[in-house]
Specification:
Blueprint lengths: L6 H6 L27 H6 L16 H14 L3 E5 L2 H12 L5 E5 L4 H14 L2 E5 L15 E7 L11 H10 L3 E5 L17 E5 L13 E5 L2 H13 L6 H10 L3 H20 L4 E5 L9 H7 L6 E6 L5 H9 L5 E2 L9 E5 L1 H4 L9 E5 L5 H13 L4
Parallel strand pairs: 2-3, 2-4, 4-5, 5-6, 10-11
Antiparallel strand pairs: 1-7, 6-7, 8-9, 9-12, 11-12
Helix pairs in contact: 3-8, 4-7, 9-13
The structure holds pyridoxal-5'-phosphate (PLP).
The site of pyridoxal-5'-phosphate (PLP) has 13 residues, from α4.
Length: about 400
């Protein structure tokens, strides 16, 4: 186009391209819905169903491809797809692998919204969802039916903290040709080598440690297996799962410090948890690195770290109102869901409404230990505990 263009058109079109050869440490942020093709032939040659190149922003830009590759590396996988939230990653796995007439098994301590989703799959999509004791181990074999397609695992459960025997579950599942997916958010992919234990699909809520800022919602689904990846990729595109490039950049920016943050959360959480074991107000400390936690020996065998999330069960003599007052009288711990950020959080849970067979009379409170000085956190809990007794 040689003809002189009007100023209006020049606001839209320009021949300028920045000099080549730029190199820097951060990843670039590539914003795009439209991706340009040099020719029609190039456009027709591109298949949007395969991720080897660029077709449309929804299906990948250098920014998303970079984060996907980094996450697959961290987890020891080969393929990764980003999703708009951790919950979207869970729904991606379900919609990629399940169809009407199939059966899915989930642990009773599964992430709450995942339980809600499986109820919807059952009521409206003709997929049966059955729940198993998270400590079932090899006993899962007895629950597997000919129509069972998928077994979800979570280790530990993110409220009641039971640590599942993943190798035993995977062994039984694989003997029956069933795929096993793990919600590996608690370990951030740093403290558990899920694929080495037999897991087929790892799901991460990047909202937690990978973001680290309490400001991003994002998820990831990671695999080693090409055939599984193909199913996930198709579902990812058919469902239109996209993520914002600025958010992807922020996760990329946080990744280099994730190991240091995770280890700091871990050390502080163990210090606070150890102090809580000495308190008469506390019935049990449900931290996988402590012996009261169901599955503690499995954690010792399979995990190399623990992060900042754990729960306690108060002595049964306290009422719910007293425990609520305890949580509200904490100053440094804020009341709110999620974890993996710098701020400590605390949430009381009504276990009797969440679990059919919950018998402990004490009230459960979950702590997310942030990046504050653990001695300040202990002092905060101590002053709130002092208010428990009238
Ligand atoms: C937070 C969380 C999710 C969901 O992540 P969102 O990004 O908040 O949707 C899934 N599983 C576990 C264990 C989580 O903690």
């Amino acid at each position: 186009m040689k003809k002189k263009i009007s100023p209006q058109t020049s606001l839209v079109h320009s021949d300028y391209t920045p000099p080549a050869g730029f190199s820097a440490l951060p990843s670039s942020i590539h914003h795009a819905s439209t991706v340009l093709f040099p020719t029609i032939a190039a456009m027709r040659a591109r298949n949007w169903k395969e991720k080897s190149g660029y077709t449309y922003g929804l299906h990948g830009t250098p920014t998303t491809f970079t984060l996907e590759a980094r996450l697959a590396e961290i987890e020891g996988g080969r393929h990764c797809r980003l999703t708009p939230s951790g919950l979207a990653a869970i729904s991606l796995v379900n919609f990629a692998l399940l169809k009407t007439g199939d059966d899915v098994l989930l642990p009773e301590n599964v992430y709450g919204p995942s339980k809600e989703l499986s109820g919807w799959l059952q009521s409206d999509f003709g997929i049966t969802a059955r729940f198993y004791d998270p400590l079932i181990g090899a006993g899962i074999a007895d629950l597997i039916q000919p129509d069972t397609r998928l077994i979800w695992t979570e280790a530990p459960g993110s409220v009641s903290m039971e640590v599942a025997d993943l190798p035993a579950i995977c062994k039984a599942a694989h003997a029956a040709g069933v795929t096993v997916a793990l919600d590996n958010t608690w370990s951030a992919g740093l403290a558990l080598r899920a694929f080495d234990l037999g897991i087929d699909i790892v799901m991460q809520a990047l909202t937690k440690y990978q973001s680290g800022g309490s400001d991003i919602l994002m998820g990831a689904v990671i695999t080693r297996d090409d055939a599984l990846n193909h199913k996930l990729e198709l579902a990812h595109m058919r469902l239109g799962m996209g993520v914002g490039m600025d958010d992807v950049y922020l996760v990329l920016r946080s990744l280099p410090s994730m190991r240091l943050r995770f280890d700091a959360h871990d050390a502080a959480a163990r210090k606070v948890a150890a102090w809580l074991t000495t308190r008469k107000e506390i019935g049990k400390v449900l931290h996988p690195a402590f012996p009261d936690c169901p599955g503690h020996a499995i954690w010792q065998r399979d995990f190399t770290g623990a992060g900042g999330l754990f729960s306690v069960i108060f002595d049964g003599r306290y009422t719910e109102a007293q425990i609520d007052r305890f949580v509200e009288s904490l100053a440094l711990f804020k009341i709110g869901f999620s974890w993996g950020g710098a701020h400590s959080l605390c949430v009381p849970y009504r276990m009797q409404t969440m679990r059919s067979a919950w018998s402990d009379p004490g009230h459960l409170v979950r702590f997310n230990i942030g990046l504050e000085d653990p001695d300040d956190l202990i002092a905060d809990i101590e002053q709130a505990l002092a208010g428990l007794e009238p």
